[in-house]
Amino acid sequence: MQTTFALRIIFLLLATLSLSVSFAQYRYEFVAGKLGTVCRLVFYAKDSLTAQYIQAKAFSTIDTLNEVLSDYNENSEIRRLCDSAGTGKMVVVSKDLYEIIAQSLVYSQLSKGAFDITVGNYVQLWRRAKRQGILPTPAQLAKAKATTGYQKIKLYPAKQAVELLAKGMRLDVGAVGKGFIADKVLALLRQLGVNSALVDLGGDIALGEAPPNEKGWQIEIAYTAHSRTRKSQKIVLSNCAIATSGDTFQYISIGGQRYSHIIHPKTGLGLTEKLQVTVVAQSGSTADAFASAISVLGKKKGFALAQRLETKKYLLGTQIIYYTENQTFIKETKGIKELSYACDKGCL
Fold first, then answer.
1. How far apart are CA 211 and CA 203, in angstroms?
2. Lowest mean pLDDT among 15-19, 152-156, 211-215
3. Exposure check for the chain: N or C terminus, fewer CB within 10 A?
4. Three-state DSSP class for 194?
5. Are 192 and 51 contained in the same domain?
6. What's the whole-model pTM score?
7. Cβ of 268: how many Cβ atoms within 10 Å?
8. Helix or strand run (H / E) with residue 78
9. CATH number of the domain within which 109 lies
């Protein structure tokens, strides 16, 4: 009887060990150049073969969505939609294109137009300005302004259709696209059984559950663009998204003035205020869009919007960094302070 009991214990221990091995998770990281930036996937899977399959599916999803949303590709679905502008006809679109346009209109309403995907013609002017080193003329800006305004988009939810009301208008989802795609990739990973994952599309980051035996993913917010010394802040996050907007890498200098790649939808001009905005939200598209919107509004009005949206649970936290000649200033909402505090209390 004792021998039988001992054998049962050994069997149970072996079964438990076998079960723990079968559920073992290993860290995998993959990097690829897509969307005009560096795309990075970090996730936990049971073996390398599974990881290779998952990363192939994830990067394929990025390519597929880029074919839908790219403003650079004249054959993309969003470009074909723009060709219908001003014809008086609605166009049935894919689920992904309809979804990002519908989300964008909500962001435009919440920000009172500080975020607006109808700035496509302004974007074209600034791409030309970057190449030529010459500011757009008042006449060019006026012509683009006539096609700008989120109110010029009409949705038909029952038919999953969109109508662009102004002839010549052009959509550009650059201020929300990477966050939107990051959300879709993270959702795909979850469908494939990967819950612990980080999707980083050029700084627009969507996060799944924490890595095994960790409290979350450690994210570093660096602020070096206009300061002479490298400084950073670390926070630990999971099941949310984070995006940072600023002119660290994308800007043009004309006539001694530095213009950000972020365009003010009301003026068509690149921003000149030296700001870096970091937003934490439940989704990548929300974080991406409001990092841009708060930048457009500036440190005072933008911070007020961030606080208001945090109260309404649209945002989880916001940090605004702004600069003078010799100093760096930081404004933080209650939410971002709590995230930083949690990190300081033992998450590093």
1. 19
2. 15-19
3. N
4. coil
5. yes
6. 0.89
7. 22
8. helix 77-82
9. 1.10.3980.10
Its domain, for residue 93, covers 76-164
- Sheet strand arrangement including 153-156: 91-92, 161-164, 153-156
DSSP-derived pairing of the beta strands 231-237 and 315-323: unpaired
Give the span between the Cα atoms of 19 and 231, in whole angstroms.
Answer: 45
The rounded percent of the chain whose pLDDT value lies above 90 is 72
Nearest-5° Cα angle at 250, 328 to 111: 75
CA 132, 136, 142: angle at the middle one, nearest 5? 155
When pLDDT is averaged across residues 331-348 and rounded to a whole number, the result is: 69
Amino acid at 288: D
Decide which of 131, 164, 197 is a domain's last residue: 164
Q: Which residues contact 107 (CB under 8 A, 6 or more apart)?
A: 115, 176, 286, 289, 290, 293
Q: What is the pLDDT of residue 346?
A: 41
Q: What is the C-alpha separation between 306 and 333, in angstroms, rounded?
A: 7
Task: Give the other-Cβ count within 10 Å of 140's Cβ.
Answer: 17
Distance of alpha carbon 333 from alpha carbon 244, whole angstroms: 15
**How far apart are the C-alpha atoms of 261 and 240, rounded to whole Å?**
26
Residue whose entry in the numeric block shows the structure tokens 């206009």: 226
Higher pLDDT, 217 or 344: 217
Torsions phi, psi of 186, nearest 5?
A: -60, -40
